[in-house]
Amino acid sequence: MFTPAVFAQGVTVTDNAGLFTAEEIAELTDLATDINQTIKGEVFIVTTTDNTQDPETFADDFLREQIGNDNNGSVLLLDMGQREIYISTSGNMIDYLTDSRIEQILDSVYEGMTEANYIQAARSYLTMSQSFIESGVPRGHYRVDRDTGKITYYNVLTFGEILFAIITAAIISGVVFFIVKSRYQMKSGTYTYPFLEQSNFQLNKKEDRLTNSFITTRRIPKPPANTGGGSGGGSTTHSSGGGTFGGGGRSF
């Protein structure tokens, strides 16, 4: 059973496996601070030697205990007992760390772990996450629920698109204003609208009958099962403990 009392709230690195020195933990904490300010959430690293849970479940539970369900954050799990790496994401980190981006992070973390260069593995997780966050959510990004197949698209507007929309709206508003103003200014004297000549009213009786109705449904197939996600700008999500999580992992 997951025991949240073991983990201190707000502590960036929970090193139960003893992989890092005090200086290394301080370095990782500094790197995480910049990310936390950007995402308005928290990122974590947790290590363990005696976990018996599925790594995905352990990581999701750990992240939930730190920040709650559906808030912004992520955690890197280094499971030394089961020789597993897992990244769990929540909130806006699901969108920043897409499946393909998580795969890239795992590539770098895996290299460090197989060489027993644990600080490099942890550092890669934080620095690459920071880089992806600065790059922003990919255009055309979407979430795919792996259990239901439901696809939710994420609308991304660039700064240029936003600026263009504002300028266009301002121009159109100005044109409409001056047209309306010129039409209703009435500089040539008092104007009387000939309502008797111009008005016309006719009421027709119309009756509609519903004869047939059709409902078209389409089943969205589930994406193929995987541990780390797929290509493109999508994020595969799953439900756990009342929250929605993304993520991926692999053995080392």
Notable features of this structure?
252 residues, alpha/beta, Diaminopimelate Epimerase, Chain A, domain 1, 8-stranded mixed sheet, 8 strands, 40% helix, disordered N terminus
What does the model show?
Residues 218-252 are annotated as: Disordered. It is a single chain. This protein is an alpha/beta fold and 252 residues long. It has a domain at 4-137 and 243-251: Roll (Diaminopimelate Epimerase, Chain A, domain 1). It has helices at 22-39, 55-67, 92-96, 99-114, 118-135, 159-184, 195-198; strands at 13-15, 42-48, 73-79, 84-90, 142-145, 151-153, 234-240, 243-251. An eight-stranded mixed β-sheet has the order 1-2-3-4-8-7-5-6, sandwiched between helices. The longest helix is centred in the C-terminal third of the chain and has 26 residues, at 159-184.
Question: How do the helices and strands line up, and which of them pair or pack?
Answer:
Layout (H helix, E strand, L loop, with lengths): L12 E3 L6 H18 L2 E7 L6 H13 L5 E7 L4 E7 L1 H5 L2 H16 L3 H18 L6 E4 L5 E3 L5 H26 L10 H4 L35 E7 L2 E9 L1
Parallel strand pairs: 1-2, 2-3, 5-7
Antiparallel strand pairs: 3-4, 4-8, 5-6, 7-8
Helix pairs in contact: 1-5, 4-5
Keywords: Membrane, Transmembrane, Transmembrane helix
Protein name: TPM domain-containing protein
InterPro entries: TPM_dom
